[in-house]
Amino acid sequence: MMGPAHSLSGAAAWLGVGAAAAAAGHPMPWPVLVVGALICAGAALAPDLDHKSATISRAFGPVSRGLCEVVDKLSYAVYKATKSRQDSRRTGGHRTLTHTWLWAVLIGGGASVGAITGGRWAVLAILFVHLVLAVEGLLWRAARVSSDVLVWLLGATSAWILAGVLDEPGNGSDWLFTAPGQEYLWLGLPIILGALVHDIGDALTVSGCPILWPIPIAGKRWYPMGPPKAIRFRAGSWVELKVLMPVFMLLGGVGGAAALNVI
């Protein structure tokens, strides 16, 4: 799928988690619901770090473009080293390593560890990166006509303000993980969810997605998961723009309202 649809699906997924958490007796304070939805929207773009033309490659200028090239080469090297005889030949690393459940867990787990060990500056860095990506995804039309510096300033300012709100007692820095020293441990959860939602979205397209790597399926380690090919669609097609995106907005609204006990 394209960047805007990925970001919308990520935000909707976290709002749905908020509704489920409220039903399970662990309601999210509103700052956790808002910040988590924004992080998840940004994280839903991150798996495309293996593609030099993706939204994330433009988000941080030369830094993200260079990182995309490195990740593409790394992903391709891992693919070549682990593919089976049944796996197809490739010329690049797009939709391989960064589009797997293992990558999602490692990145999200690393963010959680960084948040609880790196203190406030680590939290601010995690928020900044994902808020910039959320702006690029959710407000893509405005972001593309704005300068990168303005988007970065918006991300940095928002990260500083939201971190201050979360730090207030009862606002959620210790949501779900309440032991001393576990503040912001939950930050990895929307990152994991966003990456997985991205992978599921890509699995709906023509090419599928090797979400379950390295688990072998039908003799392939990089089996492209997805529904029957007859109901898959091409990225950017009318199905994505006219059906899926409105559905994501509707589900997100319902999930957010349920999470806040409005409905």
Task: Characterise this structure.
The protein is mostly helical and 263 residues long. It has one domain. The chain has nine helices and no strands. Helix 1 (3-23) crosses helix 5. It starts with a helix and ends with a helix.
Write the layout of secondary structure elements.
Blueprint: H1 3-23, H2 30-43, H3 55-59, H4 62-82, H5 101-138, H6 140-145, H7 148-167, H8 188-203, H9 238-259
Helix pairs in contact: 1-2, 1-5, 1-8, 1-9, 2-5, 2-8, 5-7, 5-8
Could you give a short description of this structure?
With 263 residues, the chain is an all-alpha fold.
Portion in beta strands: under 5%
Number of DSSP strand runs = 0
**Oligomeric state of shown chains:** single chain
Number of helices: 9
N- and C-termini, Cα separation: 31 Å
Name the average pLDDT: 92
Key features of this structure:
mainly alpha; 9 helices; hydrolase; hydrolase activity; transmembrane helix; Metal-dependent hydrolase; membrane
